Every structure is written in structure tokens, then in C-alpha cells.
Amino acid sequence: MNDQTIWQRHPQAVSAEVGDEVIFLHETDGVYYSLDGVGAFVWQCLANPLSYGELVGRVLEEYEVPEADLRKDLEALAEDLQSRSLVETQG
After folding, report:
1. Burial tier of 78 (Cβ tally within 10 Å: 0-12, 13-18, 19+)
2. CA dist., res. 5 & res. 46, Å (int)
3. Of the four listed, 5, 10, 81, 90, which is most buried by Cβ atoms within 10 Å?
């Protein structure tokens, strides 16, 4: 994934914030998912489409983590969310 890859929420993923957690319902499969911590923060950042580089920058501003570790974790999160049709990436 490169810094220009655009991330966006899948249009059929409905979400709500419950405390520090984000709960999802995917309209097509009817399954609930949840994210907390950094994952919930990432979801909030994706209220509008965002490049991977911008997303990395926002998370680094909010959390004190090594950038290399963050990039690895975000790529894994993207793969997981894409496999569940909760986010889409382009580029």
C-alpha cells in the first residue's frame, strides 16, 4: 500500500459510536463488527475518503507509536476491513 492509496468507508457499512467503541452493521450480510482504540479512531478519520499517508499522519498525531509499526498494523487493519466489505481502497 502506498501513501496515495485512498481509503473510504464502504457505502453499505452502517456504524455507531458506543462509548470508546464503534459498532458496525454491514447491510448486505447482516453481521455486526466492532472496533475500539486505534481502530475506532481510524474509522472516525474515514468519515471522508483519506489517503493512506494522511491517515498515517493523523494517527501519529494522536498516538505515540513507531511509524513502521503503525504502517504494518494499518495495512493489516485495511485487509481485515476490506475482507468484511467495511472499507474500500483505491490506488
Report:
1. buried
2. 13
3. 81
